[in-house]
Amino acid sequence: MHSYNRSIHLNTAIHKLGKLGRPGRDTLIVITGVVLTFVLSSEFDLAERINAWLLTYEYAQLDEVPLTLFVFVLLSVWFSQRRWREIHAEIQRRKQTEAQLSSSRQLYKTLFDGDLTGNVVLDMEGNIGMHNRAFDRICRPLDHDRNARDLFSFEWLAFVAQLKHHQEINFSKLQIRRPDGLPCYVGARFIYVHASQSQQAQIHGYLVDMTEQCLVELDLERTLKENRILARHAMQMQEQERKYIASEIHDETGQYLTAIRMDALALQKSPPDQAHVISVRIASNTQHVQQSIRALIKHLRPPALDSLGLIGAVERLVNDWKKHNPQVDCKVRLDTGDHALSEDINIVAFRVVQEALTNISRHAQASEVCVDIQVITRQGKPMLQIEIRDNGKGMDMSQTSEGIGLVGMRERIESLQGSFKLMSGQQAGTLVTGLLPLHASKQAAPLPLASNLFPDPGVNDYATS
């Protein structure tokens, strides 16, 4: 029974010793060693025996050193070495951990800043905290103290209340109010992060730049609307043109042909002395028919393009325009070199200049006009450049134009795989630029412009009789 209790106490002591850490166990060893040395010295008179042995080395005074103290010093040195090794190993582990943590932070920073998605952390007041470079690229230039309330196009308080309720809100297209005024649209996701002991509640935002896609969609929508207007206008103009041609043929050519037919019938029954008078009348009516047909041909297509080419036709167009606008100083520079221009390019270039001069005389109130047509080289390819510039009152480019003329010019040029550009501003004049590749093939017949169908007197009739 006694041995059983001793074993229980021994097991309990070993269990408690196992719970101690290495420093605790080493301290217990030192204390046990010192106590054991003291007990053995007292039990077996070790001190007297050691002193008798040390008398041989009296010169070193070793007998003055107490045995217990000596053992304590040795154990203390052993204890210190153990602690030093542990501290050294701990320092190495901490250095390795700090290096790994620094590498992880650098990797996180690289991934965070290199992400194409604009990431931002906001507080509940909308103040911008941490954000990456993609957020700067999408929303900047942005002041450091700028608030998200000024950045996003929604009402902030209502947004925060809704976000707290749903925990997450997604926007398929959200407009950003950039400080530089440039258009900006993003797809966005906002996540509500609850407050913790270490930080307050936050809003995490993730923005994907969709500006280019949205601008293309807006441009396609605008182009589709313009094309619908142009197609509807073209159909109206086609019907009016048919009505005009029918009226001209009926009123002018038809009545003279009727007179010629009646004179021809009368000529068969007329005596010889009246035949001469009837034949003169037939010749006069025939001349009127010829003039009417020639005027109708001029109206449908400028004959000067066939007889004089583009340069000669534009010169005659500008000279006649000057006669009806003497108050405007119009300068002309025309040079196509030795390049042979196709019929499609000639008619498109002529109609663009014609429409531009018509718009200037109607709306620009300009005092100076410059018409420049020349062949240039772009990326090693020859192109016909058409520029019409005026110093008139210009137009507001931010407002949608209801006019058909500019749309028609653009459609004509783009039908030949060219490019059209319009630059204007309030009281800053207007510059119309068209580029036509000389080797372009015609894709679709461009629709006629209103001013080409029903020209102003003296503006569109530029052919010789």
TrEMBL record:
Record has Transferase as a keyword: yes
Assigned keywords, A-Z: Kinase, Transferase, Two-component regulatory system
Claim: Transferase is one of the keywords in the record: yes
Tree of life domain: Bacteria
GO molecular function, one term: protein dimerization activity
Residue ranges occupied by any Histidine kinase domain in the UniProt entry: 351-440
GO CC aspect terms: membrane
CDD domains listed in its UniProt record: HATPase_UhpB-NarQ-NarX-like
InterPro entries in the record: HATPase_C_sf, HATPase_dom, His_kinase_dom, PAS-like_dom_sf, Sensor_HK_TwoCompSys, Sig_transdc_His_kin_sub3_dim/P
PANTHER family linked to this entry: NITRATE/NITRITE SENSOR PROTEIN NARX-RELATED, SIGNAL TRANSDUCTION HISTIDINE-PROTEIN KINASE_PHOSPHATASE UHPB
Protein name: Histidine kinase domain-containing protein
Native source species: Methylophilus rhizosphaerae
